[in-house]
């Protein structure tokens, strides 16, 4: 399934992994919001944890068609995601995301905290109020 990516941390425009992974490989980069999730601070990067009522601010990234497969593999490696691996830090899931420019809702890939990571974060993690990693204090 070819979907845009919703990014909310180091892959956002202006952040270090954007330049390393996305620069020159995207057709569109637009502000957006993921509902039903909150952010927790990680060791230099955030985790989105699915939770009703939460909102995460980020960007919708639409890759160039000829870069899609390579980019999907590169992002899976960056996020240490492998389908079915119990040691994943993140899970790549398809979720509805709201595009800020026009309020349209579309499906996008989102890397959310894997279940074991999410449980640890809920128990003793530092939640980022407001759902915007860039505005964390």
TrEMBL record:
Pfam family, one: GGACT
Domain Gamma-glutamylcyclotransferase AIG2-like per the UniProt entry, residue ranges: 5-134
Lineage: superkingdom: Bacteria
Signal peptide as annotated in the record: none
Name of the protein in its database record: Gamma-glutamylcyclotransferase AIG2-like domain-containing protein
Organism: Streptomyces spinoverrucosus
